[in-house]
Design goal:
The chain is about 45% helix and about 0% strand. The chain is built from 16 helices and two strands. It has a two-stranded antiparallel ribbon with strand order 1-2.
């Protein structure tokens, strides 16, 4: 506790007589009423930051005991006012802090601006080197081209941030290798040696696909999804065994949708528009130095093609509210169970399951869409096999592709084979059979015609599926 001096501010503040009387009165004042102390009210410095209590005297005379009581009351009232003000400020600060904390999640969950791509699941994660960065410079030309076509914004930038700071050479490099091999490195057909008959050309097919096991998988898939295949066949005329065989060849009935990501692969192809972008692949091509003009031209063409597919994929994913970076696809950007290129989705995609959108990762939409594509490219019920082959090549321009689908469809449509029970082991008692009985049995056996499907029949197959002696293996008729 420290004493507080009382300063006079009235008109007689300099009157010596008044000051003497005040001092004399203070000397004879009862205990607890000293005018120079806060006393026992316990309000040390409560009404001033500097610890001094300022009082204004009304006249030259010293205050009496009543005035001192009033002064103590003033100090107590001031103390309560200070305490109340401090409590009010504390409440206000707490409320402001809570308001700011509650408002933060709302800002984080704000909806993207109209026209921008939704990429909710493509967001950066803590510790990501690109968490607060911008897309790398290598993507600037592609992003600028998209922006000129009306595909831009923060969400697009977020997609390219996820692609990293380098353009993968693999998608375009593989395409260049395929095109170059077909153009310059395909071996010439060998002439038939004199005196020998030319071997009949076997139709090309994918190895290991047309098997009884795979046909059984297709039949099971048809049973599980009978509704979609039945409705699609009645609407478009494409037999269900052809549709399911196409799905098996494309994605193994949806179990192999591609190891890559359609957006990444298409973006890489669109950005790689000159040989300098794929140096390793160019160096591995025999004679590439003499064909750089041809390679450059084909790369620009494929880059433009990939750009159109990329733009279509972004718009398709935006329409579905999906993240394009979460959509699996082939090395060249095909998506869905039926492996459509993105530009084909608005043209041939069909909402088979009636949910109001075309999602090719669902069975109903995939079956309806592939059937619609074949129908629009000339499929007719009851058409000849060579015509079916030609329509299937419109889906994928490959002889092996079309032949494999037709051969697998034949196996799916055929009834499942039932193996006969194994022959019983001859009992010891049968060995005592009389020779006359054996002779009679032999005569009876020679009069019974051979049963189809057994080794006794001409052109039969062994249980392991191989053709027996004299049997001709089935071939797939395909007219190019």
């Amino acid at each position: 506790m420290h004493s507080m001096q009382a300063y006079q501010t009235g008109t007689d503040a300099g009157n010596d007589a008044a000051q003497a009387r005040c001092a004399l009165h203070a000397a004879h004042a009862p205990d607890g009423q000293s005018s120079g102390s806060n006393g026992a009210d316990g309000a040390d410095g409560a009404d001033g930051a500097d610890g001094a209590s300022v009082r204004e005297y009304s006249g030259p005379e010293c205050p009496g005991p009543n005035h001192l009581d009033q002064d103590a009351g003033y100090r107590r009232a001031a103390l309560w006012r200070v305490l109340a003000s401090a409590a009010l400020c504390a409440l206000l600060l707490t409320g402001c802090s809570g308001t700011r904390q509650a408002a933060a999640p709302a800002d984080a969950a704000a909806a993207p601006p109209p026209g921008e791509v939704r990429v909710e699941s493509a967001g950066t994660t803590p510790g990501d080197s690109h968490a607060s960065g911008r897309p790398a410079a290598c993507w600037s030309p592609l992003r600028g081209r998209l922006a000129a076509d009306g595909v831009s914004g923060g969400r697009i930038d977020a997609l390219f941030v996820q692609l990293g700071d380098a353009v993968s050479p693999d998608p375009m490099g593989r395409k260049v290798k395929e095109l170059y091999t077909t153009k310059f490195l395909r071996p010439e057909p060998q002439p038939t040696p004199p005196g020998q008959k030319p071997k009949p050309a076997r139709p090309p097919m994918y190895p290991g696909v047309v098997t009884d096991e795979n046909a059984a998988k297709c039949r099971a898939f048809l049973t599980e999804n009978a509704r979609w295949f039945s409705l699609a066949e009645s609407r478009f005329g494409v037999p269900r065994e052809v549709a399911v065989s196409l799905l098996f060849v494309e994605t193994r009935l949806g179990t192999a949708l591609g190891k890559g990501n359609a957006f990444r692969n298409l973006a890489a192809m669109a950005a790689a528009d000159n040989p300098d972008m794929v140096p390793g692949y160019i160096a591995a091509l025999p004679g590439a130095d003499g064909n750089l003009d041809w390679i450059s031209l084909r790369m620009r063409q494929k880059s433009d093609w990939a750009y159109q597919e990329l733009k279509a994929l972004i718009r398709h994913a935006d329409g579905l509210g999906q993240d394009p970076l979460a959509m699996p696809g082939s090395i060249y950007g095909a998506v869905g169970i039926c492996q459509f290129m993105p530009t084909n989705i608005p043209a041939y995609g069909v909402d088979g399951d009636g949910d109001g959108r075309v999602d090719l990762y669902t069975v109903g939409d995939a079956v309806f869409s592939l059937s619609n594509y074949l129908d629009r490219h000339g499929w007719q019920p009851g058409m000849r096999r060579d015509a079916r082959y030609n329509v299937l090549k419109r889906y994928n321009n490959s002889a092996a592709y079309a032949n494999t689908i037709l051969a697998l469809a034949d196996k799916v449509a055929a009834p499942a084979k039932t193996q006969s029970p194994p022959a019983k082991t001859q009992s010891p008692s049968a060995k005592t059979q009389s020779s006359s009985a054996k002779t009679q049995s032999a005569r009876v056996k020679s009069t019974v015609p051979a049963r189809p499907g057994t080794a006794d029949a001409t052109g039969a197959k062994h249980p392991d599926g191989k053709a027996a002696a004299g049997a001709s293996a089935p071939t797939v008729s395909a007219t190019r």
